[in-house]
Design brief:
The structure is a homodimer. Chain A is 25% helix and 25% strand. The two termini of chain A are 20 Å apart. Strand 13 of chain A pairs antiparallel with strand 13 of chain B.
Chain lengths: 337, 337
């Protein structure tokens, strides 16, 4: 091992948040670089992504993201190069994606890393070719099942998953409406990403604007938010509509989740609506198929991927707090020094 | 027309209920028997069924049952014989099922009636071979999709649809748990209808009892109630579980529906649960298939149908009020004099 590697800076959880997450819920520490066992590799993190789902994990075991606790290194997906290998299949120098967490170095069993093929931008494995892209792809295509000409509504439409899901719906021939949290995002969705319309949920007359933006109702709702936006969308659903339940970002940054939207299950019955929750890990055996399609669309220019980059490990806590307030467009990535 | 037919007694809506339905929301009147036009038949009601869905209609246009208003004859499905026909396909004497409403006589276009074949008990068309049976069948088999060995939970399990749905789940090889509102019903479900267990939702420790009754979780929940029982069921769902949203009886007898159960859509995502609302009318082109299967099961004794009969038109309002309080077991039928 390179003797120059002296320390492993880590962002750790100081305390689980009470109410909204604050940067004070984290602290930074330097520890020794971990020991690499037989069959393992040491990865030097080049970048990791931050998503709203990261916050869900901090709600404890109630969330799908599991329950980290005080003193744990903050969890997250990252990319990096292998700097030491005791795993024959993954030589030093290879780029991999792994659950690096928020730290400079991490050790993984070879099988727990994903080798990024040569010729691919490693960062794309944190965005459109990673979990975000695959979530958008399978959530839209497999769960939402839009048909040509359907109206597809996407919430958190400027987010890491949403901005891809909306474009994938367009590629599939749908009429696509985004819901987002600022007029700047609204403009980007329409002018740069090809959404047919976008509505700012912070507007006082949001429900009225949503109605105007969906004159033919909504056939597929790709729900990243839950809460009030889901509640509003339910009233716009067409008969036989599908709701792909991807995330509940409206309820992550709190320890007192709001009540569920009104009219469940009554509205589902009246409109014969299907709501289906999914986790992308259930599609693991189809990732190759999804990635191939996504790569083709990216190469052809049909699918644009937005990243939103922040510099330095120490920026990560603030970047997550800001993301939860709606500060990002596309996938937020922390580049390490 | 037989000159002995002088009057048509009707139950009409006096006022839409504020809060709980009362018999005072109805009144009885006698009017002239309606005129029969070309292509129409006059049906003398022999019996009609009363279901919780009937109450939903009185909530106005928010319900799938549409919005009747004061002065209307109360709506409902009935069976009767054709006593006057100006429709060649349906001669006098034929038994039909039709939207008779709560009255002695009603006129229908031939196409709006359903001819009950000879050899069938006409009353079965209000129960296991009618909408109740078809709802149980398609809701369970097509929406719920139980697999051999699955645990199926049914709410309002002693009700007109529930008691059939549970038995159909058993026939399909499932382990079946019913939720009902009295210990008498609980005993009947287990000892007479073959449910593996049943839980009384009025028990203080209902959630605990539900947990004990579903040690392997719940794969399919056939939801007739919504509300607290749905909320409790959500926590028992297995990964990949299906909820067939059939009705919301817990929310019908009020003008102030309760909030939706907690954790939607979060729990749907964590457990990858599908909730699907359905209306039986969407299966109209498969009714023959459903009826054939149901008839086979009834004939073989595999499927028992419970009816709960009330005598006389004037009993109908009280029979509905009592049904909403949980007074019925099986399909409640009003026999006319």
């Amino acid at each position: 091992m390179n003797m120059l590697i002296q320390e492993n800076r880590q962002v750790l959880i100081k305390s689980l948040p009470q109410g909204k997450l604050e940067t004070g819920n984290f602290y930074i520490e330097s520890v020794k670089v971990p020991v690499v066992g037989e069959g393992q590799v040491l990865v030097k993190t080049a970048a990791f992504s931050i998503s709203a789902g990261t916050r869900a994990g901090l709600q404890g075991s109630a969330s799908y993201a599991g329950g980290p606790s005080a003193g744990n290194v903050m969890n997250g997906s990252g990319i990096g190069q292998v700097v030491l290998s005791r795993c024959e299949a993954i030589p030093v120098g290879h780029w991999v994606k792994a659950s690096t967490g928020w730290q400079d170095y991490s050790v993984h069993n070879g099988a727990d890393t994903e080798i990024i093929p040569h010729g691919y931008d490693p960062v794309s494995y944190l965005g459109p070719l990673g979990i975000n892209g695959l979530t958008a792809y399978f959530g839209l295509v497999d769960v939402g099942q839009p048909r040509e000409g359907d109206t597809v509504l996407v919430s958190a439409a400027a987010g890491s998953v949403g901005h891809l899901a909306g474009q994938i719906a367009k590629i599939n021939g749908a009429h696509v409406i985004g819901v987002c949290g600022s007029d700047a995002k609204r403009n980007i969705l329409v002018s740069e990403l090809g959404f047919d319309a976008a509505v700012n949920y912070r507007d006082d007359d949001f429900r009225q604007k949503l109605k105007i933006a969906t004159p033919n109702g909504v056939d597929v709702y790709f729900d990243n938010t839950g809460g009030m936006i889901l509640g509003s969308a339910l009233f716009r659903m067409n008969i036989g509509g599908r709701i792909a339940c991807c995330g509940v970002v409206s309820q992550y940054d709190t320890d007192r989740p709001a009540p569920s939207p009104k009219g469940i299950p009554g509205l589902l019955i009246n409109k014969r609506v299907t709501m289906r929750g999914f986790l992308i890990y259930d599609y693991a055996d189809r990732f190759a198929e999804g990635r191939e399609t996504l790569h083709k669309w990216i190469s052809s220019g049909e699918l644009k991927s937005f990243t939103d980059r922040v510099q330095g490990l120490e920026s990560a806590p603030g970047a997550l707090v800001n993301l939860l307030a709606g500060g990002n467009i596309g996938t937020r990535i922390v580049d390490l020094n």
